[in-house]
Write a sequence for this structure.
């Protein structure tokens, strides 16, 4: 056993049995209801999806597709459509014998692809659709809603054709609205997907998202397109007992109780940070870990890993947004009024920027007029750097 920064799988998992069983059981059943998972960054959503996929692998009647919107680079609609279609085809490759990974085909001229697909034993209609999705001309196809619709309809068609149920695990689903070609595709696309999904029979969609605000807009709130279409589950951080278990299971050193408390206080149960500290604790040159060593490990982690983890996210913010984050972190401020005073801005300006910061997943509105930074390790890093 050792610490890992990749998605947890199998034996690496602490807790999460209930949610994984619930998803696997529901999906294996007859209903078409899917799940919406939300939870803060690095809490373990992707790990849950990947584990669900692993558990369903042996089920011949279900084809599970994991797809992360964040992996679409550059973030264009056309890239999304191609990459998603490719992932779907790849998942179905053992059901409809296509010899070659489709993405390799895309490089070839249309005639070669057409010729190649001719051997595949599925209906001509579906074949035409695949051909279209792989060969459409980026410059000519401007109806982006239609492209997205056709991409999302591909798994449905393949499922019908192969007599399977297709389960799409769409990670960071709300970010679909950020895809762009000339301009952003926008919120409407979620409605397009919802309308299509309603009429499908063989596809089950499960989504996840780490930005509370955007999950609300697309899935959770009563005015969102997918309201009541999913079983909604919040993925919470690990408990203190879970964190202790994770550390004891993986750590080669003995960690005393005070040190365990310190680790929990710092990580707040976010498994990613527990794994990160764990790796460093393993490298400490002494066998008994006390609070003293943990303090040093935390300081070193902030200094050495903080920049790698947070620099680009933080520097992509506008100057005003950065000022707000710094004021909140270093002065422990939570209300627009206090932040306005500290940054010498108008309260109304601050309120506007607090909305942007919510949409970007940096802060959450706790109650009326009270905001706090989501990631407490990020907050500590800012405080350490700018305090
Ligand atoms: N149940 C768990 N037990 C142990 N470690 C876990 C667990 N869940 C997640 N982790 C670890 O936490 C880290 C983050 O997990 P994961 O990528 O699944 O989270 P996420 O919520 O998808 O994060 P992101 O917001 O970055 O997409 C990984 O290092 C993973 O190994
Ligand atoms: Mg993830």
């Amino acid at each position: 056993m050792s610490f890992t920064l990749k998605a947890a799988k199998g034996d690496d998992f602490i807790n999460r049995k209930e949610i994984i069983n619930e998803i696997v059981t529901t999906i294996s059943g007859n209903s078409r209801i899917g799940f919406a998972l939300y939870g803060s960054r690095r809490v373990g959503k992707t790990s849950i999806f990947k584990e669900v996929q692993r558990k369903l692998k042996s089920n011949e009647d279900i084809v599970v597709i994991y797809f992360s919107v964040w992996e679409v680079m550059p973030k264009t609609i056309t890239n999304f459509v191609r990459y998603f279609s490719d992932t779907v085809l790849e998942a179905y490759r053992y059901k409809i014998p296509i010899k070659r990974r489709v993405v390799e085909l895309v490089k070839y001229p249309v005639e070669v692809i057409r010729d190649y697909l001719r051997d595949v034993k599925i209906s001509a209609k579906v074949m035409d659709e695949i051909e279209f999705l792989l060969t459409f001309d980026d410059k000519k196809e401007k109806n982006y809603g239609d492209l997205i619709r056709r991409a999302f309809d591909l798994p449905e068609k393949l499922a019908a054709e192969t007599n399977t149920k297709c389960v799409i695990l769409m990670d960071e689903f709300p970010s679909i609205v950020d895809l762009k070609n000339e301009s952003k595709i926008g919120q409407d696309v979620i409605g397009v997907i919802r309308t299509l999904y309603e009429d499908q029979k063989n596809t089950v969609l499960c989504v996840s998202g780490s930005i509370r605000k955007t999950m609300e807009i697309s899935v959770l709130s009563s005015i969102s397109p997918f309201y009541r279409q999913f079983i909604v589950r919040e993925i919470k951080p690990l408990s203190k007992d879970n964190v202790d278990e994770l550390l004891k299971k993986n750590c080669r050193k003995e960690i005393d109780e005070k040190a365990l408390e310190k680790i929990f206080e710092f990580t707040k149960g976010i498994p990613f940070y527990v794994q990160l500290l764990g790796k460093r604790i393993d490298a400490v040159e002494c066998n008994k870990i006390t609070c003293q060593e943990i303090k040093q490990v935390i300081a070193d982690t902030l200094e050495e890993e903080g920049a790698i983890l947070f620099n680009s996210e933080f520097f992509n913010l506008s100057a005003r947004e950065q000022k707000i984050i710094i004021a909140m972190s270093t002065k422990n401020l939570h209300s627009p009024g206090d932040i306005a005073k500290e940054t010498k801005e108008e309260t109304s300006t601050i309120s506007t920027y607090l909305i942007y910061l919510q949409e970007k997943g940096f802060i959450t509105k706790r109650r009326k007029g009270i905001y706090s930074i989501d990631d407490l390790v990020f907050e500590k890093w800012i405080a350490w750097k700018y305090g």
About this structure: The first strand starts at residue 34 and ends at 38. Residues 340 and 346 are 6 Å apart (CA to CA). The first helix runs from residue 17 to 28.
